[in-house]
Hints:
The protein is 14% helix and 32% strand.
Amino acid sequence: xxxxxxxxxxxxxxxxxxxxxxxxxxxxxxxxxPTYPPYNIEKTADDAYRISIAxxxxxxxxxxxxxxxxxxxxxxxxxxxxxxxxxxxxxxxxRAFERRFQLADHVKVTGASHVDGMLxxxxxxxxxxxxxxxxxxxxxxxxxxxxVIEAQKVN
Length: 155
């Protein structure tokens, strides 16, 4: 894979640090992407989304959902067993994890719920009024010109 040097982008732009950081993260292939825990991202409405994470074995008190630096960070820690259990097979992973989801501009976290071993995080895109498209009325020639005085011949 090719490596790109983004240094000229940094010194030639102002205010586009977020885009450059995103490109750096995408281009960094040497960092393995975590696969635990599995998750789904679904679109529930035109401007609403839901992240569902499989957190079997974790109680709601073991989970933490934070929004920081434009990302949703989900982390979990499980208290250690007291040693009274003997497992013949241990297939349910309850190891600590931290999963980060980068948020787009104007996306807010509206809530989180823990139901049946699934953590659901609801997101809403709230575009400010100044950025929404507006329809501009087009005036025709008769109604668009006002306060016009008829010209009269002087001599």
